[in-house]
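Supplementary Note 3. Input sequence used for the single-chain structure prediction.
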Amino acid sequence: MNTSSHLKPGAIQHPQGVAMQATCIQPKAGQDRLRRWVPRCLRQDRPKGERLAVSPLRGYAATLSQRGFTLVELVMTIILVGILAAYATTSFKQTIFQSRGFADQVQAALRYAQKEAIAQRRNVCVAFTLPAPSTVTLTVGNAYGVACNTGLAFPAGGNVLTAPAGIAFTALPTAFSFDTLGRPNPNAAQTISIVGATNSITVEAETGYVHQ
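The predicted structure, written as discrete structure tokens, is reproduced below.
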């Protein structure tokens, strides 16, 4: 007996002529639920002792589980990645610019200290701090041959040069002084490096020449 003419819309024709409603395989609440629910539904509908291939339904569930990005999701992801990349690049360039700027200021401060030591015939001391933001402090003796005991003001005012936020020396430089001839004391070459700056600052022994 041909049962195909008696099947209702949505029914599945079993190989042995048993009709089963296909409504039980419709997903209700997402793919994960579909994968757990479909095999149980088939077991409930098939006649006792009968086996029904479920590969088409499993393939349907696998197709849902392997669904990729939509065009809108892809475009939004690209936009977000672009914004984050632009922000990171700008921040990185700004840090490098500030590091190089502070290196130039430190070099100018050391040259100024040496010049004032020669001009005033006084000892000029240079001290450093490391925790960001790093600083350079200048002091001068108030008389010839006297140890440093007074702040030496920069042309812009104040005797402390402070680095921008987050900018610091690579390692804490050794404090030293320039004598009345502009020579460093202790009389040894010193290299001063700043994180993010390409060139280091060098104070030469004997002459006290400051350069990058």
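The chain is about 35% helix and 15% strand. Residues 1-12, 17-23 have pLDDT under 50 and may be disordered.
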